[in-house]
């Protein structure tokens, strides 16, 4: 079988969660880290919407990060990130990820933009981020990971966005009313898989040597 190709971008939170799931699922892909200002025609020809991640198989294309995660984890899930022991959890987990990708990402983007442009609304958007995260903070006060005592797909789907929040204003973040979230993030940073997901590769330009990732 030909190895699927993952079009990716190192700092993109959606691509990051896809890479994390691929690593936790012990899958192998050919990784193409792209230049967003010069998207490769090979990617646009199979996925005209032009977002990353895109996973390209011989006969199919996966264009949404959550679908890449689900593809990987349905191939193999040695850490039980889909909570196979409790099938009722999967719809709840996907709903939480959906809410993250709509509600939380929406306010996070506003907060990041307000901070970048020193907008007066910065604190208001930051407060909205904290408000949204209060449910996650409360969950993490009860157990080590977002869904329970073991990690799940939700932890890795949300992690790249929480990381973004933590980097907007590090001083504020370090004393924000989110102590359990902070410990959770540090715990993930300490995982060698996270460092592996963040490895820097040369940008793919059609001639670069294939990067086997996984
Ligand atoms: N819903 C998509 C969103 C992916 C997305 O928006 N990725 C950003 C990069 S972080 C992107 O490719 N944006 C297109 C662009 O910047 O031209 C997914 O979950 O995969």
Give a description of the structure.
- By secondary structure, the protein is α+β, with helices and mostly antiparallel strands.
- It has two domains: 5-80 and 194-213, Glutaredoxin (3-Layer(aba) Sandwich); 89-191, Glutathione S-transferase Yfyf (Class Pi), Chain A, domain 2 (Up-down Bundle).
- The protein has nine helices and five strands, in the order βαβαββαααααααβ.
- It has helices spanning 13-24, 41-46, 65-75, 89-116, 122-142, 153-168, 170-174, 179-189, 192-197, and strands spanning 5-8, 29-33, 54-56, 61-62, 211-213.
- A five-stranded mixed β-sheet has the order 4-3-1-2-5.
- α1 (13-24) packs parallel to α3 (65-75), α1 (13-24) runs antiparallel to α6 and α4 (89-116) packs parallel to α6 (153-168).
- The protein is globular and about 50 Å long.
- The two termini are 16 Å apart.
- 33% of the residues are buried.
Key features of this structure:
214 residues; alpha+beta; Glutaredoxin; Glutathione S-transferase Yfyf (Class Pi), Chain A, domain 2; 2 domains; 5 strands; 8% strand; globular; binds glutathione
What is the structure about, briefly put?
This protein has helices spanning 13-24, 41-46, 65-75, 89-116, 122-142, 153-168, 170-174, 179-189, 192-197, and strands at 5-8, 29-33, 54-56, 61-62, 211-213. By secondary structure, the chain is an alpha+beta fold. It has two domains: 5-80 and 194-213, Glutaredoxin; 89-191, Glutathione S-transferase Yfyf (Class Pi), Chain A, domain 2, CATH 1.20.1050.
């Amino acid at each position: 079988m030909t190895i699927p190709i993952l079009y990716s971008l190192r700092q993109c939170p959606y691509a990051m969660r896809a890479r994390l799931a691929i690593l936790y699922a012990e899958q192998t892909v050919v990784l193409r880290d792209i230049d967003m200002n010069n998207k490769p025609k090979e990617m646009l020809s199979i996925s005209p919407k032009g977002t990353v991640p895109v996973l390209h198989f011989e006969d199919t294309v996966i264009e949404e990060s959550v679908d890449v995660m689900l593809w990987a984890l349905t191939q193999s899930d040695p850490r039980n990130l889909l909570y196979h022991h409790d099938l009722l959890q999967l719809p709840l987990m996907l709903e939480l990820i959906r809410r993250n990708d709509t509600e939380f990402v929406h306010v996070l983007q506003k907060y990041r933009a307000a901070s970048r442009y020193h907008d007066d609304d910065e604190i208001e958007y930051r407060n909205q981020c904290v408000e949204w995260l209060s449910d996650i903070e409360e969950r993490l006060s009860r157990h080590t990971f977002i869904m329970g005592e073991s990690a799940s797909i939700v932890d890795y789907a949300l992690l790249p966005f929480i990381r973004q929040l933590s980097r907007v204003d590090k001083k504020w973040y370090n004393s924000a009313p989110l102590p359990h979230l902070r410990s959770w993030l540090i715990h993930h940073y300490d995982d060698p898989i996270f460092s592996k997901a963040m490895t820097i590769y040369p940008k793919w330009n059609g001639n670069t040597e294939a990067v086997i990732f996984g």
